Amino acid sequence: MSNGTDYDINAIVNKQFELDYDAYNELGRVNISTFFALSYGLSFATIAATISHVGLFYGKEIYQRFRVSRREDPDIHTKLMRTYEDIPAWWFYSLTVLSMAVALILCTVLIDQVQLPWWGLVFACGMSFVFTLPISIITATTNQAPGLNVISEYAMGLIRPGYPIANVCFKVYGYMSMSQAVAFLSDFKLGHYMKIPPRSMFVVQFVGTIVAGTINLSVAWWLLGSVENICHIEKLSANSPWTCPNDRVFFDASVIWGLVGPRRIFGPLGNYAAINYFFLIGAASPFVVYIFHRIFPDQKWILLINLPVLINATASMPPATAVNYNSWLLVGTIFNFFVFRYRKRWWQRYNYIFSAAMDAGVAFMAVLLYFALTMQNRSIVWWGTAGEHCPLAICPTAKGVDLGPDSVCPVF
């Protein structure tokens, strides 16, 4: 809240997990940090810039490829892949019908629990379908995938405010459907170049999805029942690893977009209406790059300016902190600038392998630290585990709030 205290979410939720309007009006507006508001604004700009960028730089190519897709001469990779049996179309149709049927049953039979009506499910799938192509193009050309998480929450929050579970479900069907579609296409692209049989790819992906989903749900359920005070920061020890930063961001989003609704935060009833201008900024920014490209067609480096990627660079903040970004920036600058410029042969031979090794090393160390420290109730305390070292981040913003002589927070 504006006086520096935490907002009492439980006070504005009724027994049906819906917004209690009287309690909300009594408690007051929800305030979010400047950084959190800025991250949402950049998310608005990212999705708008994605549409503009793809339309300006790839629109003509998309149209031409769509027209000749049925009569275009196959390349060498396609010719080699024809030695394998193709995936029957009914595999995809059957899986689509089955998934939609289960989802529709969920949204009709369990409507009181999920709060999402059937038309919300159809709308989410339609949004996912529309955005899959432009986001896939950005992913294929830059290996960075803008997300639909914020825009899907925004849309459902406007249509059906006061229902947080409905907003979460809409986000899952809208955003995750698109995300999984892009990952599915990426895997098939890799299999296409590696000459892996398409049917084998399909079966492996299907089985892998079932296994991964089952294991993830089982582990999450086990952790919730076995780890005391999991995700409750105020009840955990200072160095506890069970703070759940990603889950807290997910919860905060359900409150902001689903329970309270965007009109009471980013609309005329909230404090952050100016954040909506990021939509306009994001949509207009690729036009600037495109105009300079048309004026200076010989300057090839202009085409390398990809504003959706640049704007989306902070998509993980939060839960990522400035410490994470500093380390990414340091490693990226060393290996993709200095090593690339002065030791290009090493970069060509080992940079990709080194990147994979670092990813594997992080995963290995996570498992090792869990068994070596967490299970033994031990922790390592040093400068790197003490957060961002910015005590002003939790200071109140309301005028006249004085936290006492021992506080570092200023009084406005």
TrEMBL record:
Keywords: Membrane, Peptide transport, Protein transport, Transmembrane, Transmembrane helix, Transport. Its main location: membrane. It holds the Pfam family OPT. It is a multi-pass membrane protein. The chain crosses the membrane at residues 35-58, 90-111, 117-138, 202-224, 272-292, 323-340, 352-373. The keyword Transmembrane helix applies. This is Oligopeptide transporter. It comes from Triticum turgidum subsp. durum.
